[in-house]
Amino acid sequence: MKSFLRCSAILTQNLLFYPLLLIMTAVYVPLATLTVTVLAPFISRRRLMRRVRRAISFYGRLVFLCARPFVRVEYRDLDPKAPPAPFIFICNHRSASDPFLMACLPYEGVQIVNLWPFRLPIYGRFARIAGYLSVHELSFEQFRERIGQLLREGASVVSFPEGTRSGGREMGAFTSSIFRAALQTRARIVPLAISGNEKIPPKGSLILHPGLVKVHKLPAVEYDTYKDMPVFKLKNHVRQLLYEHLSKIESDQI
């Protein structure tokens, strides 16, 4: 009986979610595109980028609104008295829904992405206008300079250093580029733990499963704390912070 009810819930969720998503996208994307096109000649590049980043973030919130009540998202700031942004956010990566979850963050943010988002007809243009970064298109010097510029402008940077989603609770090894950039820009590093969306959707599938997704912002790792660490030690230190926190979430200690 429980299996039948769960299958019914999954079927109902997907029959509701995807039509709602299509309708919302069909309305929101043209309006956002028109707004950006009209505003572009009259405002500065910095203001235009900020507005596009807000538009992308708002779209992410709408995506998860379409998934309610089957999918709920809980955002918790575990360091609310931390100094103000900007930060470099280091996130674990379990699902294709992870980038949309960055809409939870009450900060202006720019994501580091692979090449494929830039190839999408409309989203790719928005991502480029917003200043999203691809490590595959930039030399490390260009990558570091772009990150430094974003931080100086007050925009945070969001990185998924596993490089690809794990599809489960395990966490892959971290790449080094973002940590090298953090050392050279003296940025504050904020681990961001994401749990519960392993099947929202599962890797290799579009079928959403009901669930509670938790996004927890951990205390910042200050530059003075890590400035003497080699890159290898720094990335493993941040990875361990995420691993320990995720273990607590999944053993229902948090």
Strand and helix layout:
Layout: H1 2-39, H2 45-67, E1 71-77, E2 88-91, H3 98-101, E3 109-113, H4 116-119, H5 123-129, E4 133-134, H6 140-153, E5 156-159, H7 177-185, E6 189-195, E7 211-217, H8 223-226, H9 231-250
Parallel strand pairs: 1-7, 2-5, 2-6, 3-4, 3-5
Antiparallel strand pairs: 6-7
Helix pairs in contact: 1-2, 6-7
What does this structure look like?
- With 254 residues, the chain is an alpha/beta fold.
- It has a single domain (71-250), classed as Glycerol-3-phosphate (1)-acyltransferase, CATH 3.40.1130.
- Helix content is 48%, strand content 14%.
- The protein has helices spanning 2-39, 45-67, 98-101, 116-119, 123-129, 140-153, 177-185, 223-226, 231-250, and strands spanning 71-77, 88-91, 109-113, 133-134, 156-159, 189-195, 211-217.
- A 7-stranded mixed β-sheet has the order 1-7-6-2-5-3-4, with helices on both faces.
- Helix 1 (2-39) runs antiparallel to helix 2.
- The chain is globular, with a radius of gyration of 19 Å.
Key structural traits:
single chain; Glycerol-3-phosphate (1)-acyltransferase; 254 residues; 9 helices; alpha/beta
Beta-strand fraction estimate? 5-15%
Radius of gyration over C-alpha positions, nearest whole angstrom: 19 Å
Can you count the beta strands? 7
Task: Describe the strand arrangement of the main beta sheet, using strand numbers.
Answer: 1-7-6-2-5-3-4
Structural class: alpha/beta
Treating each run of at least 4 consecutive H or I residues as one helix, how many helices?
Answer: 9
CATH architecture call: 3-Layer(aba) Sandwich
Mean pLDDT: 92
- Span between termini: 30 Å
SSE order: HHEEHEHHEHEHEEHH
Fill in the CATH topology.
Answer: Glycerol-3-phosphate (1)-acyltransferase
**Percent helix range:** 40-55%
Number of domains: 1
CATH class category name:
Alpha Beta
Please give the largest β-sheet: 7 strands, mixed
Based on CA inertia axes, which overall geometry fits? globular
Query: Low-confidence parts, pLDDT < 50 over ≥5 residues?
Result: none
Superfamily at the CATH H level? Answer: Glycerol-3-phosphate (1)-acyltransferase
